[in-house]
Amino acid sequence: MKAGVSGLALAAATAVFGISIATAQTAPPPSPPQMTFADPPHKNLKILPADISRMQLLATMKFFSQSLGVRCTYCHVGTDGQPLSTFDFPSDAKEHKKTAREMMRMVQQINEKLPGITGAPDSKITCFTCHRGSTKPATEIPPNTVLVPPPPGATPPPGAVSPPPPHGA
Q: Could you give the 3-state DSSP secondary structure of residue 143?
């Protein structure tokens, strides 16, 4: 039986397909795109330790971002949606970055004294203590918050949130 032109084309296509499958299985998988960040020494760190690891720095920045409900561009020069490698992280051009440094100094000073004040060695505050996901720190008690439980038999105001009962009650 003779193979016609279509038979040869089918055989060639099958061979090319088989070779491409074999090649695809032996090629290394493509590497994911890498975000490029400086690893120590970082540039222009004034409060954070100069030898902070890349992972610690990223975790710290992520915590700041979540605590204030902001993105990197709130403090850093760059454009949202662009690769982080295009950002000018060392720049001090934004006032929010300068404010963040002052707030970090304040938190450090409070945390140095807090264990002595509270008697609890692990007492500390963070950005989230006051900011609670907002750029403006909370300075007032939310409405309808009951800080002291009402006397026995008293009816709390409608919608009031009472503190949990004392431990062991």
A: coil
The residue type found at 125 is I
Mean local confidence (pLDDT), 39-47:
83
Assign 3-class secondary structure to the chain: CCCCHHHHHHHHHHHHHHHHHHHHHHCCCCCCCCCCCCCCCCCCCCCCCCCCCHHHHHHHHHHHHHHHCCCHHHCCECCCCCCHHHCECCCCCCHHHHHHHHHHHHHHHHHHHHHHHHCCCCCCCCHHHHHCCCCCCCCCCCCCECCCCCCCCCCCCCCCECCCCCCCC
Cis amide bond preceding 166, omega within 30: no
User: Which amino acid, residue 104?
Assistant: M
pLDDT for 95 equals 97
Residue 13 is assigned to a structural domain of this protein: no
Position 14 scores a pLDDT of 76
Range of the domain at 126: 54-131
How many domains does the structure of the chain reveal? 1
Assess whether pLDDT exceeds 60 at residue 3: no
0.70 exceeded by pTM: no
| Domain-embedded: residue 155 | no
Judge whether 163 lies within some domain.
no
Structural domain contains residue 159: no
